[in-house]
Amino acid sequence: MNQQEWEQHYLDKTQDELQPPDTLLTENQKLLTGGTALDIAMGSGRNALFLAECGYRVTGIDRAESAVQLAHTTAQKRSLEINAVTADMLSFDLGIEQFDLVANFYYLERELIPCIKESLKPKGLVFFETFTSLGISHDDPRYRKFLIDPNELITLFSDFFIMYYFERVKGSKAVASMIAKKV
Ligand SMILES: C[S@@+](CC[C@H](N)C(=O)[O-])C[C@H]1O[C@@H](n2cnc3c(N)ncnc32)[C@H](O)[C@@H]1O
Q1: Which of 12, 56, 73, 105 has the fewest CB atoms within 10 Å, measured from its CB?
Q2: pLDDT surpassing 80 at residue 64
Q3: How crowded is residue 100: how many other Cβ atoms within 10 Å of its Cβ?
């Protein structure tokens, strides 16, 4: 979807329709020991809010103003605090050794990966889940660049300790999930 479509997507949503946090986070809650967290392209904040509930000081970024607004009002309603920022990930400075955890769910921008690595503190964790190219039958390059190839994610993070990696294909959707630690 383009930016305008994402804006409309979140304008059409209410707080009650928020998706639950991703199971990669909820099923690995024992790893969520608090500190600083960044949620890349957070959407309306399902994961950012969960991380805040787990005790993280969370910065969540999305380019869609309507998404950030929804995250902000939901946080207020749940008495949670998140730093919800409207910005383009490609021009946002992630900083150096700022975060104990970076969450990247269903958003793929390969050029951000070195910045994600740099922004993590030593021993910091990255939780990454996104669609893989196995899920599409057509080869449209406009879509392909947003899809990770099989095994590509672990290759991109080969200098990290891979704590968990799984790829699955279910119907027309294929997903890669990874938890990796900066060494
Ligand atoms: C599929 S949604 C994923 C949202 C969230 N990570 C989740 O898993 O629920 C993709 C999000 O990426 C955001 N997005 C797309 N391009 C972006 C960019 N360049 N900078 C920041 N956000 C962007 C969209 O606005 C949208 O909210």
Answers
A1: 12
A2: yes
A3: 21
- Name the residue with tokens 């959407």: 43
At the fourth CATH level, the homologous superfamily of domain 3-10+19-27+36-182 is: Vaccinia Virus protein VP39 (3.40.50.150)
**Ligand 1 shell residues, CB under 6 Å:** 6, 19, 41-43, 46, 61-64, 67, 88-90, 105-107
Each residue of 68-116: pLDDT tens digit?
Answer: 999 999 999 999 999 999 999 999 999 999 999 999 999 999 999 999 9
Taking the C-alpha atoms of residue 175 and residue 106, their distance in angstroms, rounded to an integer, is 9
Task: Ligand 1, residue 22: give the atom nearest the CA.
Answer: 8
Find, among 60, 55, 63, the residue nearest to 74 by Cα.
60
User: Do 182 and 120 contact (CB within 8 A), yes or no?
Assistant: yes
Cα angle, residue 143 at apex, residues 142 and 149 outer, rounded to 5°: 125
What's residue 140's pLDDT? 66
| Residue minimizing CA distance to atom 12 of ligand 1 | 41
Our mutation pick for probing the ligand 1 site, out of 26, 62, 106, counting the most ligand atoms within 8 A of Cβ, is 62
Q: How close is the Cα of 32 to the center of ligand 1, in Å?
A: 22
Phi, psi for 161 (deg, rounded to 5):
-85, 115
